[in-house]
Amino acid sequence: QGERTITIQTPVLTVEDGAFIEGSTFGDGDAAAIDIDVQRLVIQNGGHIGSGTAGEIDLGNGQMWPASTGAGGEITVDATESVVLSGDNVNIHDGTSIATSTQGLGDAGQITINSPSIDLGNRATISGFTSSAARGGTIILNTDTLTITGNAFVTADSGFSDGVDPNSVTGQAGDVVVNAGRVVLNGTGDG
Asked: Residue 191: how many CA atoms within 13 Å on its side-chain side?
């Protein structure tokens, strides 16, 4: 076992049209951490970078796969120029995101983004979520300028999802920490 890391080093990384980079766990081991070192990161039109832990899975015939006990992986982005997340203006829930989540027994991973410019638009999200007794992921944004427009949002929350007993959701949401010289909120984007 032991922690595994997905490491990407490139001048420009584009994740788009439903492509994804994912580190998840369905068992006792921790999910892979994701470490991205770029000049520019672009996630658009349903692109996704995420890490999560799985809850109990119904295999049918009365058989259940137990909830994972491993922790979610951390996501760290170091972008020397910019990070841009832009969803599809037509599809309301296209999934353009950087996200960590837990439905299992292990805490969700932390998201840390370091870049001079972080720009979210068109319903794109950065999120840390729990729907279990484990803690949701904390989000840390270190930037000169954070811009959130067009129903995009940054959120750390706790709630239940499909197939989850609402009474089992007792985990605390993570924190959202923004260290920015300037924050621009335009339209109905939240931060």
From this structure: 22
SS3 2: coil
Each residue's pLDDT tens digit, 10-59: 999 999 998 999 988 887 888 889 999 999 999 999 999 999 887 777 78
78-118 pLDDT per residue, tens: 999 999 999 875 554 557 999 988 877 788 889 999 999 99
Buried b (16+ CB within 10 A) or exposed e, 71-88: bbbbbbbbbeebbbbbbb
The contacts found for 162-168 with CB under 8 angstroms, 24 or more apart, are 163/55, 163/58, 164/55, 164/103, 164/131, 164/132, 168/132, 168/133
Please count the other Cβ atoms lying within 10 Å of the Cβ belonging to residue 61. 5
Instruction: Return the biggest CA–CA distance within the chain.
Output: 56
Output the DSSP codes for 133-163: SSPPPPEEEEEEEEEEETT-EEEEEE---TT
Question: Are the C-beta atoms of 90 and 50 separated by less than 8 Å?
Answer: no
Tokens standing for 122? 């068109």
* Closest C-alpha to 55, from 169, 132, 158: 132
Residue 162 burial class via C-beta count within 10 angstroms: exposed 0-12, middle 13-18, buried 19 and up? exposed
**CB of 134 within 8 A of CB of 104?**
yes
